[in-house]
Fold this sequence. Notes:
The protein has helices at residues 2-15, 32-53, 149-152, 227-236, 242-251, 256-267; strands spanning 60-73, 84-90, 93-96, 108-118, 123-130, 138-146, 157-162, 164-165, 173-183, 195-197, 210-212. The chain has 268 residues and is an alpha+beta fold.
Amino acid sequence: MASAINDKVGERRSRVLLGPLPEDFLRINISVQQQQEAADRQTAMALHHQLSGGQSYTNAVGRLSITVAQAKLAKNYGMTRMDPYARIRVGHCVYETHTDPNGGKNPRWNKVVHCLLPQGINTITLEIFDERSFTMDELIAWTQFQIPQQVLAGETHEDWYPLNGKQGEGVEGMVNLVLSYLVFPAYKYPPPAPVMVVPNVGGGSIIKPLKVYTAPPVENPMPVLSESELKQIEEMFPNIDKEVIKTVFEANRGNKDGTINSLLQMAE
């Protein structure tokens, strides 16, 4: 009996691996194709992060400000009042508003989005979702439109845009947006290339090239809203977020009367 136990213990010990583990220990052998797919996936994720999260556009021509004010939807989908939020896509960048709890058919966000506008991009895509607790969020409405030319010309533009959805094209409701655009100075993107100048030195001296850079133009300072002015406007529009007021003020180039007029249109 004892010998049988010893034999069994010896057999189990013989199965134990002693010494350094091999390099492929506990590794799953994958094919070359799977390795390539994994590498491609990592490359795609890095590119997505560079283009969206990092916003490292080297060809950005300006900054677009989008105020997602509110929406009026045609129907409330579900048994209870919807909890809508909006998702905005400009180029490769995606932004979201907060969720308006029980917003139903009349959600309000007053969310300001600042994004770099790459060269050649002139469309905005907006989607409205109903946030769900136990299932996937449901897409309620969507729209895609070109950035108005007056916005690209520097004007602040406020409008209601029709929404598409289950009810049909353009009849799912409307969304209220305020758009403004700030053009970047040309010297920033890209920076000016250096000009090589060779001085005319006589007497057998060594000629050394000099790097000369053109002086950048003087940039106009961004208008700043003082605390007293901001407080005064906040008292006039208590339901509008402070960041929205600042953005509208910048879009109106520091014109206080124009800012108030734009906010009056948003509050209607």
